[in-house]
Amino acid sequence: MKYFKAPSLTPLSMVIIGSTLGLLTGCSSQSEDTVTLAQTSDTFTGAPAQQEVDPYASRNGGAWGGVYMTESELTETNRHIVDIDAVPAFDQDPSLDKWNEKFGYENAYVSTDGKKLYHDSCAGCHMHEGEGAYGAGYYPPLADNSKMQSKYYIIDILINGLRGMPSFRHMMNDEQIAAVTEYVVKDLNGFDEEVTAEDVAQLRPITPPGVDPAL
What is the pLDDT of residues 23-49, one digit of tens each? Predict the structure, then answer.
């Protein structure tokens, strides 16, 4: 009479079987007091279960937002990972110095040099030589462009914007708009045309529209 002999299990097979049994039994290993995602009401009263989320829970594990904390930090009072009290007030932020050198505290250009204004405000889209560009959109060339012969055409666009170009009426005064317009007219196109602040004042509306007409 032949007897059946069970095949011997390799160590790898035993690990796989053990892991599978652990997963199957682990589903029911929690205590009765544990609130699960599937449990939507209180076991005794039937009232909706309140699942409170502790924003500092991950901190107890020693890692918070991917930043590992020291033992001393773990024992400190709960706090945000960014020390809000250490962040300076907006108008006292030292990183704004470079911004304020260019725009001042009034969020407006301070220079009256047409070339500087162009390179600070226009060249990012229309390029430094005024050649224009293609990219996320179309940025028309300002150099060698016959439309630039009309200073009032440029002034009107700077004040009111045009399609995707924003207006600069709040960031430049009349003298500054005149200066950058003259730079485009003369330096980028070679037209002999003087542009004055009075030219700009003629087109600047006394009461600006409530919305940007360029949008």
Answer: 555 444 444 554 444 455 566 566 666
Any idea of the CA torsion for 180, 185, 189, 192, to the nearest 10 degrees? -140
Instruction: Identify which of 76, 51, 53, 71 has the alpha carbon closest to the alpha carbon of residue 61.
Output: 71
Measured distance CA(131)–CA(145) in Å, rounded: 10
d(Cα 64, Cα 77) in Å, to the nearest integer?
14
Q: Beta strands 63-64 and 67-68: pairing type? A: antiparallel
Q: Which of 192, 200, 172, 185 is nearest to 112 (CA)?
A: 172
Give a yes or no: residue 150 inside a domain: yes
pLDDT at 177: 96
Domain that holds residue 193: 106-203
CA distance 52 to 162: 51
Q: Within a domain: residue 144?
A: yes
Q: What is the pTM of this model?
A: 0.53
Amino acid at 211: V
Residues comprising the chain, all counted: 215
- Give the number of domains in the chain: 1
Residue 95 inside a domain? The answer is no
Q: Identify residue 155 by its one-letter amino acid code.
A: I
Contact (Cβ atoms closer than 8 angstroms) between residue 177 and residue 198: no
